[in-house]
Amino acid sequence: MNTRREFLIKSSLVSAGAFLIPNLLRANESRQVYGVQLYSFRDAMAKDAKGTLEKIASLGIKEIETARSQKGHYYGLSPTEMKNTCAGLGMKLKSGHVHLDANFDQTIEEAVASGQEYLICSSMPSKGQTIDNYKRVAEKFNKAGEACSMAGVKFGYHNHEYEFESENGKILYDVLMDNTQPDLVHMELDLGWVIIAGKDPLDYFEKYPGRFPLWHLKDMNMEKKESTELGKGGLDVRSMMKHKEQSGVKHIFIEQEEYESTPFESMEHNMKYLNNL
Q1: Which three-class secondary structure state does DSSP give residue 246?
Q2: Distances 200 to 39, 94, 103, 174, 235 between C-alpha atoms, Å
Q3: Which of 35, 135, 177, 212 has CB 3.0 to 4.6 Å from 253, enough for a Cys bridge?
Q4: How far is Cα 173 from Cα 189, in angstroms, rounded to an integer?
Q5: Residue 31 pLDDT
Q6: Whole-angstrom Cα distance, residue 42 to residue 30?
């Protein structure tokens, strides 16, 4: 027979559980998921795509962004193979870097088959560091975004440092931002190239709130102007993380192009750094 004391203890435990479990679930849901841009592992992906993806998964990476290679957009795998391989390893194929070229319709078809959400143009489709050229490019991007939207895919653009040059006092990247439709052109802000250009990503989060659903989280050696492990360069990673909501970011892809040792050792460092923030 239960005593009143036992009843009160059990009741308090049930109440505590009812309070703690939802909060634990919310904390788990809010934990940031990190992805990787596969250009970080370009040589390994070219040699053994599936084996390399297995190693990437073991680092705790949960989302994948591909990069165009000599073997195509999926490193010699079919779009479906790439999708299924990632899924089998507990990762999601979310995005891919492509060119806006004569084969773009086929690129869209591949993206649909792969199940990825974003197609990101990785560089300017026409040369010319002028306001007029950037306005023309913005119109191309709007049309590409419309074509992608009709297929159920989202189109976007990834910056380097040159977009932050100016003509007649106007920053060219701002021209791009001001002349693209936010619902059709989704910006992937490469934080590393922004600081190399002498700009502050936080200024862009403030000026264009919610416009950056994707990031390239890349720290930079400011002297060599090349990427380095997180926490070793000029990017204030902690400050970036405090402004995720303002930026509108949904997917954070770590990218590192140069290494002191190996891509896997560097990425292991990067994941430990982020998990300890």
Answers
A1: helix
A2: 24, 26, 35, 13, 9
A3: 35
A4: 11
A5: 78
A6: 31
By three-state DSSP, how is residue 74 classified? coil
- Distance CA(18)–CA(32), nearest Å, equals 25
Answer yes or no: is pLDDT of 177 > 80. Answer: yes
Evaluate whether 235 touches 251 at the Cβ level (below 8 Å): no
Decide: 148 and 108 in contact? Cβ < 8 Å. Answer: yes
3-state secondary structure of 67: strand
The pTM of this model reads: 0.89
Q: Which two tokens stand for residue 245?
A: 């909501």
Query: Going by C-beta distance under 8 Å and a sequence separation of 6 or more, which residues neighbour residue 258?
Result: 226, 227, 228
**How far is Cα 186 from Cα 259, in angstroms, rounded to an integer?**
29
For the stretch 82-105, pLDDT in tens is 999 999 999 999 999 999 999 999
Express each pLDDT in 216-230 by its tens digit: 999 999 999 999 999
H helical segments located in the chain? 4-30, 42-47, 49-58, 79-88, 104-114, 131-151, 172-179, 191-196, 201-207, 237-242, 244-247, 263-275
How large is the C-alpha radius of gyration of the chain? 22
User: From CA 82, how far away is CA 53, in angstroms rounded?
Assistant: 10
Q: Which two tokens stand for residue 35?
A: 């992805």
Can you give the length of the chain in residues?
277
Does the domain spanning 32-275 belong to CATH 3.20.20.150? Answer: yes
Instruction: Look at residues 28, 91, 12, 36 and name the one whose alpha carbon lies nearest to residue 270.
Output: 36
